[in-house]
Structures are given as C-alpha cells and as structure tokens.
C-alpha cells in the first residue's frame, strides 16, 4: 500500500513523531534534524542538508520516500511553503542572524545584544502563538493539588529550575529544588512522595541525572510536567504535561528566554 504524503509541515512532523520508533537508525538521525532544524531543510540543497545532518544524500531521499514523497525536493516544498506563509516565523530570521559575518569589531557587544534581542523577540512571539492553553491549565491544576512540588534540571537548564523554585516558594507553594549538591541526586529523589508533583526542564543532550529523577517520580505515581526542546525528547513519554519550547539561537548559542518566560507565567498564574 502506497504511503500518502503529508499536505503540510504540521502533518509531516506528526507523522515523523508517530513513526520514529519504527525508523532505521540513519532515518532516525534525519528525523531528528528535520524536527529540530526545519529551516536547514528549507534553505539547503540535498548535499548541504546531508552534510549538516551527517548522513549520505541518498539517506535523505530514502527518508522522503518513507513518508510518501517522490524525492527530497518534493518534501522540501512543505518547509519552504511554511516560511512563505509565516513571514514572521522567528526561526527564519534567526537563520539570517547566524549567517551574519558583518559584525563591526568596534561595536560587537552592542551588535550581538541587538541580535539576541531580536531573536528572542521572535521566539517569544512564536511561544505565545503556539502554546497549548489547555495543557497550561492542566499543569496549573497539577501544581495546585500537589503537597510538594519538586523541580529538577542540570547544567544549561538549571537557572530556569532555580528561578522557578524561588518563585513557587514565594507564592507559598512548598517547593524543593533538586540541585544535586554534593552528588546527592539519588538521595534527593527519595524525597518524592505519591501526593507530590515534579517539574523537569531538560534540553538536548538530555542529562541522565534529570532522566533518573523523572523516572523515579513517575514510578511513584507522581505527575510530571516537562519543559523540553524537541518532540523526540526521551522524557516526553513519561510526561503528564509536555511543553516543547523553541528557543532563539544566535551564533550557535541557545537562549533560555522563552522557557524562562513560560515557567514564570505558569508560576505567577498560580498566585491568581
């Protein structure tokens, strides 16, 4: 039976996420690139995209065929159409910023500030247009009902966890930050009880310490609210509520602005 090609990018992304586990290792590699770098597909030739995704060009063609397209260029039209349809899409503008080699060395600090400000502005605009209101409300209900809220994140995502725990404690929710000080990650996991809730912030490459805490919480029957950067996050299947946030990226440095704004909004809404 022939596979029917997706009519738009949203359908394709849904199909990729749904069928990801059935794909070969190489096609999974392409799938991750397609979901995380859609502008790379829209702008690049098959050779350029293959180099970026670290696969052979023929693998891209096989990937397109696996989802019902006649070839790479046929699939690529969905990505190009998306950009043309949504001229305010922040990812397109961020791509242009990443390719900017005209920085004036006398004012590089100010120029980089402007680049980050513009990119984050577009990312926040994208966030407000794409957030799922019912999921946000579901997360609020989980946190309101919890005896204690546990927050876990490490490395790049830790500042978000730290600020969120600070906020929740100041609106009189009992909150515990799992900071792993002294390497006591496992010991802190043992504090989670069945009437609690856990918030996890985890970005690629998805730290094992965070995954361990999430698994321990879910095993105890605790609802998990996840903030992550990809629908292919290994924690998504564990989450009761999952927010996939697209952050701004300038010169290969990813921001935290959108996720910080989202967790701040969630916390403050609980005080209403």
UniProtKB/TrEMBL annotation:
Q: Which UniProt keywords apply?
A: DNA-binding, Transcription, Transcription regulation
Keyword ATP-binding present in the record's keywords: the answer is no
The HTH rpiR-type domain extends over 10-86
Annotated CDD domains = SIS_RpiR
Q: Name one Pfam family in it.
A: SIS
Which InterPro entries did the record assign?
Answer: Homeodomain-like_sf, HTH_RpiR, RpiR-like, RpiR-like_SIS, SIS_dom, SIS_dom_sf, WH-like_DNA-bd_sf
Gene Ontology terms, MF aspect: carbohydrate derivative binding; DNA binding; DNA-binding transcription factor activity
Q: Where is the SIS domain?
A: 139-272
Superkingdom field: Bacteria
Q: Does the keyword Transcription apply?
A: yes
Q: Which SUPFAM superfamilies match?
A: Homeodomain-like, SIS domain
GO annotation (BP), single: carbohydrate derivative metabolic process
Q: What is this protein called?
A: Fe-S cluster assembly protein HesB
């Amino acid at each position: 039976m022939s596979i029917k090609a997706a009519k738009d990018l949203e359908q394709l992304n849904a199909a990729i996420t749904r069928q990801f586990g059935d794909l070969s290792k190489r096609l999974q590699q392409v799938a991750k690139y397609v979901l995380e770098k859609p502008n790379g597909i829209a702008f690049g030739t098959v050779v350029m995209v293959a180099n970026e995704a670290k696969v052979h060009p023929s693998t891209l063609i096989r990937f397109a065929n696996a989802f019902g397209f006649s070839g790479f260029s046929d699939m690529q039209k969905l990505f190009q159409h998306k950009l043309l349809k949504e001229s305010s899409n922040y990812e397109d503008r961020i791509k242009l910023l990443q390719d900017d080699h005209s920085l004036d060395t006398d004012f590089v600090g100010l120029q980089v500030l402007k680049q980050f400000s513009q990119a984050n502005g577009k990312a926040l605009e994208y966030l407000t247009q794409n957030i799922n209101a019912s999921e946000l409300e579901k997360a609020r209900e989980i946190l309101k009902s919890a005896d204690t809220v546990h927050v876990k994140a490490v490395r790049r995502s830790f500042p978000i966890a730290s600020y969120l725990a600070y906020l929740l404690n100041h609106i009189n929710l009992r909150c515990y930050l799992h900071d792993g000080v002294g390497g006591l990650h496992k010991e802190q996991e043992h504090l989670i009880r069945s009437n609690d809730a856990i918030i996890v912030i985890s970005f690629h490459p998805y730290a094992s310490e965070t995954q361990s805490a999430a698994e321990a919480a879910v095993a105890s029957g605790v609802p998990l609210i996840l903030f992550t950067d990809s629908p292919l996050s290994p924690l998504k299947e564990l989450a009761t509520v999952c927010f996939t946030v697209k952050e701004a990226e300038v010169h290969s440095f990813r921001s935290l602005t959108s996720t910080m704004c989202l967790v701040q909004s969630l916390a403050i809404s609980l005080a209403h």
